[in-house]
């Protein structure tokens, strides 16, 4: 599938941007509307808390005023002995009545706040699901994919953190069991055979000098993988047990490949192998690089199985917890604006954005999105919609 501009000239687009744009508009309207509701609910919560504090303070003042009035009445009475017992009973009655009133009023306010909190949580849950339906399709250019993969009893648990353009990132759970390669325990030989690593210096029987002890790791189990951009860390173990003998490899795939190799005997701490010259020279760097490249290729097969979005951040702040949805949508609009400008430039009609799609047989069809439709949808969120239209530059 190939995408062209509306005037049939070549375009750099790899997907149906107009469908993506319409999805973005629909998501913006829904999530910003819900976020506005959350703002109102939180304002209601603040108002109720303020009201509770004010009313309780006024009830306390009322009690103090009443108590002082009783004291003054008794003090000025010519029959203090006779009325004193009634004054005490009146005072006790007022204290009990007002304290009960404070408890009842507080409970009513707390119930209202609890109801508001439930509505806030429901709105946040719906917004999370709506944003997930947008981000699951990678609506922005991807800068990095960062995988964390850990062996479990039967296979692997995996998560992926995707860094998008605009300092936006999302963390997803991955259903690794749906990828045949990862639905079981895997060994080093499943990636590359014939890997040997110098583990330690040992003194052979009947010999005076130590010699390198080179270990074949083909049967070692892969237990931990962390891929952060061009950095990869892999742990392999002799057995599926945290105290088992293990190797840890830290690789950096940049202009020049670099690797650090660590080894730990069973139940012991890791030691840096390359600190020992006799071991360092035996580290087969090209072989380990190939091993790392094959691991990265395999981790990427997990990406299509990402599912539940666990968090969405912008500028390292949680979008939902910080109520940053409108700011998020503005940032996405800023990323989309240059592409929209290119499409407008090559669209035959000034009333719509248009592209052409060419299938494998060479047949072309037109896809378009009317500007008026975008503006009509965004008008639902009023000033915020106007702001997004301005950033997108759809006039």
How would you summarize this macromolecular structure in one to three sentences?
With 395 residues, the protein is of the alpha+beta class.
Annotate the secondary structure layout.
Blueprint: E1 2-5, H1 17-76, H2 80-135, E2 142-151, E3 156-164, E4 168-174, E5 196-202, E6 211-216, E7 221-228, E8 231-237, E9 246-253, E10 257-264, E11 271-272, H3 277-280, H4 285-299, E12 306-314, E13 317-318, H5 325-346, E14 352-358, E15 364-370, H6 371-378, H7 382-392
Antiparallel strand pairs: 1-14, 2-3, 2-7, 3-4, 4-12, 5-6, 7-8, 8-9, 9-10, 10-11, 12-13, 14-15
Commentary on this structure:
The protein has 395 residues and is of the alpha+beta class. The chain has 3 domains: 2-29 and 323-392, no CATH class; 32-135; 168-306, no CATH class. It has helices at 17-76, 80-135, 277-280, 285-299, 325-346, 371-378, 382-392, and strands at 2-5, 142-151, 156-164, 168-174, 196-202, 211-216, 221-228, 231-237, 246-253, 257-264, 271-272, 306-314, 317-318, 352-358, 364-370. The protein has a 10-stranded antiparallel sheet with strand order 11-10-9-8-7-2-3-4-12-13, with helices on one face. A 3-stranded antiparallel sheet has the order 1-14-15. A hairpin with a 3-residue loop joins strand 9 and strand 10 (257-264). It is flat, with a radius of gyration of 34 Å. The two termini are 30 Å apart.
